[in-house]
Design goal:
The protein is an alpha+beta fold and about 240 residues long. It is built from six helices and twelve strands. The chain has a five-stranded antiparallel beta sheet with strand order 1-12-11-7-8, with helices on one face. Strands 2-3-5-6-10 form a five-stranded antiparallel beta sheet.
């Protein structure tokens, strides 16, 4: 997993959260909204809970709100409300926001199946024979925007969230590569692939320092916007 914070911020201000449970082949990536407060913690709760307490993705519409409720309660109870300045409290009362992508890989007698659930523009790519064969949930560059749907830490702002929840299933085989990426990097991968370039062939062999150097170059050349940037590569061997 590679991750770098927005220029001008410290690593502790990075609100991208990646978690994995490799024993059970569960992976999650959440991108907390920087314009809200305590979004990093909210993103952490979402990702942690998925890899430790996953729900059946095929039944997302029926059970997701119930799965979300204890996380919303935990987020609120962790805040020391009495110590907040009035303007921080005001923002906290509006809640924290985050994208969310959960992924489960299941082995069957016929091969592996990928199941994923998402809200927002945190994406996964499936690379087969050095080509993108699937992308989820965003499939066009023009679909990346500043108005992506987000999960809120308050129930009252999630009343219409189920219409934006998306699920995905695909078959994968040994040798395939799965990439999870937050929006800035996901958009660049898609744009680059449309130009005939196979960005992933370089990403999968990078180390953290090389990733940071790549993101710095992309930011300086205005090819990606200055934002927290995370990518995780999952190899099927």
């Amino acid at each position: 997993m590679f991750c770098i914070q927005k220029d001008g911020n410290s690593p502790t201000e990075n609100e991208d959260i990646y978690k994995s449970n490799e024993e059970n082949l569960l992976f999650a990536l959440a991108d907390g909204a920087a314009d809200a407060v305590y979004s990093r913690r909210w993103a952490t709760l979402l990702a942690d809970n998925f890899i430790n307490n996953p729900f059946e993705i095929g039944k997302t519409q029926e059970i997701f709100i119930d799965w979300l409720e204890p996380l919303q309660i935990q987020w609120r109870t962790e805040i020391n409300w009495g110590d907040l300045r009035w303007y921080v409290e005001e923002k906290a009362r509006r809640g924290a926001f985050s994208t969310f992508l959960g992924l489960r890989i299941t082995g069957t007698q016929f091969g592996e199946i990928v199941d994923s659930v998402a809200i927002g523009d945190t994406c996964l790519f499936i690379i087969h024979d050095n080509n993108i064969t699937s992308m989820f949930p965003v499939i066009k560059v023009s679909d990346f925007s500043n108005t992506t749907p987000l999960l809120c830490s308050y129930e009252r702002y999630n009343t219409k969230i189920q219409r934006y929840l998306q699920t995905f299933r695909a078959n994968v085989t040994r040798g395939d590569l799965i990439i999870l990426a937050t929006d800035a990097f996901a958009k660049w991968i898609l744009e680059d692939s449309q130009g005939g370039r196979r960005t992933w062939s370089h990403i999968q062999n990078m180390n953290q320092i090389e990733f940071e150097e790549l993101i710095t170059r992309l930011r300086e050349s205005k090819k990606i916007r200055n934002d927290d940037t995370t990518a995780a590569c999952i190899y099927l061997e």
